Amino acid sequence: MKATKVKTKSNRRIAPRKETSPINVSYLTSLSDFTRIAKNCEIVEASATGLLILVKRDDILPPALRKTLSLDSLIGESIFMHLADMNLEISGTIARTQLLGKKGFHLAIDYSEDSPEYWRECLMDLLPAPGEIE
User: What is the pTM of this model?
Assistant: First the structure.
């Protein structure tokens, strides 16, 4: 008998990513206790499944998180973010984090499951590519 390999979807990108001009995120807030996690973040990449956000260490609000080298404690946290330039609030879940050294952290946010696919694709198309807005 031949052994069959089972393919999993973990760590696989379903949708292509689009690099964006930095889009200001006014704040990231936890939906579990409504505490603000960070302020003045930037969206640096987008896809139809989520966003990649750059968070500088100085913009992390809870002192306990600001002093650590890992934000992995936030993985799985339901959050919402406010994009002031677009007057839009987006909810999602923190899927992964990455330390970037002195630059800060990347947070990968997966959209909420209740966000329609069409809406997510339209948002990705509306976000400006690098050099599109000067």
Answer: 0.80
